[in-house]
Amino acid sequence: MNRIRKSDQVVVLVGRDRGKQGKVIEVQPDKDQALVEGINMVKRHTRRSQQNQQGGIVAQPAPMYLTKLALWCPRCGRGVRVGFSTLQDGSKVRTCRKCHETLG
Ligand SMILES: [Zn+2]
Asked: Rounded to an integer, what distance in angstroms lies between the CA atom of residue 102 and that of residue 94?
């Protein structure tokens, strides 16, 4: 089970976007990277095409290493380390290591 998954709210721990929050758009487990909404934005010059009538400069997120991200804990109000626990029915959940809140 992954520490960080699609649609998670995460916080950036290091780099240019340190402290910023965003939602995970996509996780690339084979590369240990994730795309996060509004984080690590890069400008790409695109050519005018059928799909993109306007062309020009488009800002889009570039992949971030998962190690640079922390899962957001609503109870702690910060990015936290994730632990795992097994429920009585055998399903695994992620928990906040700090306050032990279940994070799904
Ligand atoms: Zn917490």
From this structure: 6
Rounded Cα–Cα distance for residues 15 and 10 (Å): 14
Domains of the chain: 9-96 (2.30.30.30)
pLDDT digits (tens, 9 = 90+) for 28-87: 999 999 999 999 999 988 877 777 777 788 899 999 999 999 999 999 999 999 999 999
CA of 76 to the centre of ligand 1 (A): 4
CA–CA distance, 83 with 56 (Å, rounded to integer)? 44
Report d(CA 76, CA 79) in Å as an integer: 8
pTM for the whole structure: 0.85
Cα 17 to averaged position of ligand 1 atoms, centre (Å): 22
